[in-house]
Amino acid sequence: MEANRAILEKVKVYGKQESRDAYVIRDFLNRSVVTFEWVPVSDVDTLRSNFSLNVPADCNLPIVELPGGKLLFDPTIEDIAFNLGWISKPKQKEYDVSIFGAGPAGLSAAVYAASEGLRTVLVEREAIGGQAGTSSRIENYLGFPGGIAGADLAERARQQAVKFGAEILHIRKGIKAQFIDGKLHVDLTDGSKIIAKTNISATGVQYNRLELPHEDKFIDLGIYYGAGSSEAVLCANEHVFVVGGGNSAGQAALNFSGYAKKVTMVIRGKDLAATLSDYLLKRILKTNNIEVLYNATITALSGETILNEITVTDTVKQTATNYSTRLVFVCIGGTPNTDWAKDTAIVRDDAGYLVTGTDLYKPPFLSRWKSAFTPAFLETSVPGCFAAGDVRHNSVKRVASAVGEGAMAVTFVHRYLTEKHA
Ligand SMILES: Cc1cc2nc3c(=O)[nH]c(=O)nc-3n(C[C@H](O)[C@H](O)[C@H](O)COP(=O)(O)OP(=O)(O)OC[C@H]3O[C@@H](n4cnc5c(N)ncnc54)[C@H](O)[C@@H]3O)c2cc1C
């Protein structure tokens, strides 16, 4: 499993072009840096006749063909991960540090913790890389003057963490956390349990939704959350819409512009300068096939089974225009993944972000501060429980800061272990 995934023999994915399940598989494989071939087919009969694939006539699409020829029919992400050999149970009875979330912050924490001799487990519910893994090109991360695809950066970090001995549990989620005898006991979705002396929460944020009628019906059938880097090559001759004016939306628009007929950015504000890095803004304004609709918001989605039309409303002129499209990428920020903490003593802000360090002494959190200990900079209101990256109250929301906080959190873990568990 821990061989370089990029050099695996090619996985093939067969499915209908407009299939939600096929999109979810492509997105997962792309973010996991698994080289795969996408083969759009209309039905199983075509698959049998044109591709000589020996599949039952009544089987379900999509089908994943693994290196070696094993076929998975309409598989879940868990099935695929299991068959690629990525699913394992926790190996140790107890860890020095458990890390939740394998975005930049969690991966960085895993690299530093494992390289410094801590028994380290890293738990990730989806694909390695987090939000950064969905970025087509990160250009402002130190050391990569030509930029690097987010999934590549994540894969390198994954290999580094594994090299130092970090244990990675894929497609697993922490659902319930309890603090017993000063240790964190976490129940995972597959029924297994992790016990650790310390914990770093690096669970990041989840994309916000448009909150429109019928949005559920079109999820992954025309409405995609995030920058959709797996889909760019499939956008030839399409009119693609990107919602949002931040850096992730800007990167997505530029990436799609290399493939699509036209890219339209839909932004609520009256300019992009306030929300977009200058280098992205200049490139967007220079790219002929990118159009920006200012003061604009999508107000309706329609289509029979897949999305084929959207309505965009100009909020100043109060006019509505319909556009034909089957590809809308929503990059409008997110909310923190901290539901797991709601029954614990960990203090969260109103939006759900984890409050750490001296912020705990300030209003409005001061009144909820019930402890006598002095928390370290990245320590939550529960001693030994740290937060790093986007999930933290007042965090910077950049790859570099998440990586930095992941590394820094490990230093605080050492201090805590020396003082409390020596
Ligand atoms: C498309 C896009 C492009 C971007 N481009 C740039 C850029 O060019 N430069 C830049 O500096 N920043 C960029 N950003 C922002 C940057 O990616 C984030 O700031 C960074 O990824 C935050 O890292 P993180 O590790 O804190 O959280 P995340 O990246 O959000 O990772 C959190 C991880 O935790 C997992 N998780 C959540 N809950 C659980 C649970 N209960 N159990 C287990 N796992 C869980 C999630 O699945 C996820 O993998 C971009 C963001 C996006 C979306």
UniProtKB/TrEMBL annotation:
<dbReference type="Pfam" id="PF07992">
    <property type="entry name" value="Pyr_redox_2"/>
</dbReference>
<protein>
    <submittedName>
        <fullName>Thioredoxin reductase (NADPH)</fullName>
        <ecNumber>1.8.1.9</ecNumber>
    </submittedName>
</protein>
<keyword id="KW-0285">Flavoprotein</keyword>
<dbReference type="GO" id="GO:0004791">
    <property type="term" value="F:thioredoxin-disulfide reductase (NADPH) activity"/>
</dbReference>
<dbReference type="InterPro" id="IPR036188">
    <property type="entry name" value="FAD/NAD-bd_sf"/>
</dbReference>
<feature type="domain" description="FAD/NAD(P)-binding">
    <location>
        <begin position="95"/>
        <end position="406"/>
    </location>
</feature>
<dbReference type="InterPro" id="IPR050097">
    <property type="entry name" value="Ferredoxin-NADP_redctase_2"/>
</dbReference>
<keyword id="KW-0560">Oxidoreductase</keyword>
<dbReference type="InterPro" id="IPR023753">
    <property type="entry name" value="FAD/NAD-binding_dom"/>
</dbReference>
